[in-house]
Automatic annotation (TrEMBL):
This is MauE/DoxX family redox-associated membrane protein. It is a multi-pass membrane protein. The chain crosses the membrane at residues 6-24, 45-65, 71-89, 120-144, 156-177. It comes from Tumebacillus lipolyticus. InterPro entries: Methylamine_util_MauE (IPR009908). Signal peptide: none annotated. Coiled coil: none annotated. It comes from the Bacteria.
Length: 197
């Protein structure tokens, strides 16, 4: 169970690192997306966008190092539920054309209920991970008195690589699906033109 929990924490850490770095590089665009949600006043939306990016980067580093792991997972859970709520509010308002602002390996998509489900599922996983104690690959264990050799092993490297490969596979699958969807839309458009003309 510890290996699965460690793997899950690393995957979530990598997701948030990718998203945080992407949003940091495009901070103005990210701020614009947060403003487009029209939930917070402009000034608060601008502050939230910056704080959001820094929290994404902070929790990713903490999760990848295994430092203050439970607190980092708690923050991740809250952030994911906030994102799901913001998307839901705009979906109920009929505002689906907005970019989700996810970035990184999660990609940028128009708002949809599937994004709400994805964020809620990730929040559930993150919340569950809080309950599973992990010492494998965690600096928390070293700070608690464990030997480095007990915490770091070839298994830690293997699990990091498996997590990276998992994200790369998911990202590739999402990109291929997007290409297929666009080609399908083009084909339908061309068939419609042929029928009319």
């Amino acid at each position: 169970m510890e290996e699965i929990a460690f793997y899950g924490s690393v995957v979530i850490g990598m997701i948030f690192m990718s998203t945080g770095w992407s949003n940091f590089k495009k901070l103005e665009e990210h701020t614009g997306i947060i403003m487009a949600y029209k939930i917070l006043p402009s000034r608060m939306a601008s502050v939230f966008a910056k704080v959001d990016v820094w929290f994404q980067l902070l929790v990713s580093v903490l999760l990848l190092l295994g430092l203050f792991r439970q607190a980092a997972l708690g923050i991740v859970t809250v952030l994911l539920l906030l994102y799901a709520t913001a998307i839901s509010v705009n979906m109920w308002r009929g505002r689906r054309e907005i970019s989700c602002g996810c970035g990184g390996v999660m990609g940028d998509h128009h708002l949809s209920w599937s994004l709400v489900v994805r964020n809620v599922l990730l929040a559930f996983v993150s919340g569950w991970l809080i309950t599973v104690p992990v010492s494998l690959g965690c600096l928390d264990a070293v700070l608690a008195g464990a030997e480095w050799s007990e915490v770091l092993s070839i298994q830690v490297l293997q699990l990091h690589l498996v997590a990276l490969l998992t994200l790369m596979t998911c990202t590739t699958a999402m990109k291929l699906y997007e290409v297929w969807r666009r080609m399908d839309e083009m084909n339908k458009g061309m068939l419609e033109m042929v029928r009319r003309g």
